[in-house]
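Page 37, continued from 36.
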């Protein structure tokens, strides 16, 4: 179903995340302009769009660390950023959020203690992100992609109900990218809700639902298959370009 960015396309008790008429202004510039959508529980929703379109700002709003100029964001039925959501929401930023002078294991034990997650979780998440062979290496000595995986592992501690992942596959090789998307799918099957951002359009087919963004607005909120069918495009990138052209034409 197409969405003009001002009306939600689906909502109700199955929504893990509900965004209504969200507006964010930063440095005098409107970054998000009347964004509305829902993310269904137990789903993998992709947030796709070019760099600078507002994806990271939207994710910060959902986590509750972004000042909003208007609208409302609820996560698991509570206002975004509520204290009660602390252990229920995992967040991975684009920039690594771990300590370079600690080993992978030390980082994860620290974050497990902060989150109140069991120490046994450390071995589980290290295995899930494919870092078992680097668990005792100082994080500062890892590659950029490996360091990003440490941040992802920290977000997985305690099995949060909602995972907000900002470009988690940047800088990783194709095999690991495949494995991470398989992990995301298995987490959703187990009941977690994932919102995953990317500027790589070919990752869209791995998502159950897509939010396509441009210039602070939602161009489309649909399944990959329905989006291709509606636009007649051969792939998601061309579907996105078709939607951009339609939007530009209607605005002219």
């Amino acid at each position: 179903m197409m969405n003009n960015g001002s009306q939600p396309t689906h909502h109700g008790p199955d929504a893990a995340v509900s965004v209504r008429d969200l507006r964010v202004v930063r440095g005098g510039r409107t970054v998000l302009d009347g964004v509305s959508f829902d993310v269904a529980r137990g789903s993998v929703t992709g947030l796709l769009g070019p760099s600078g379109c507002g994806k990271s700002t939207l994710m910060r709003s959902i986590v509750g660390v972004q000042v909003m100029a208007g609208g409302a964001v609820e996560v698991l039925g509570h206002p975004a950023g509520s204290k009660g959501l602390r252990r229920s929401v995992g967040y991975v930023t684009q920039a690594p959020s771990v300590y370079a002078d600690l080993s992978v294991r030390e980082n994860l034990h620290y974050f497990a203690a902060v989150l109140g997650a069991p120490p046994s979780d450390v071995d589980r998440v290290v295995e899930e992100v494919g870092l078992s062979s680097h668990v005792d290496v100082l994080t500062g000595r890892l590659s950029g992609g490996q360091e990003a995986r440490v941040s992802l592992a920290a977000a997985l501690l305690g099995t949060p109900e909602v995972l907000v992942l900002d470009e988690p596959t940047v800088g990783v090789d194709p095999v690991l990218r495949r494995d991470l998307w398989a992990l995301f799918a298995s987490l959703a099957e187990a009941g977690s809700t994932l919102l995953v951002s990317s500027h790589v359009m070919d990752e869209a087919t791995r998502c159950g639902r897509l939010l396509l963004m441009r210039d602070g607005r939602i161009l489309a909120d649909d399944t990959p298959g329905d989006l291709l069918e509606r636009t007649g495009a051969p792939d998601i990138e061309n579907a996105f370009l078709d939607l951009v052209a339609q939007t530009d034409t209607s605005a002219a």
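The helical segments are 55-63, 104-115, 121-128, 144-156, 174-189, 224-231, 236-251. Flag for discussion at group meeting. Residues 174-189 form the longest helix (16 residues).
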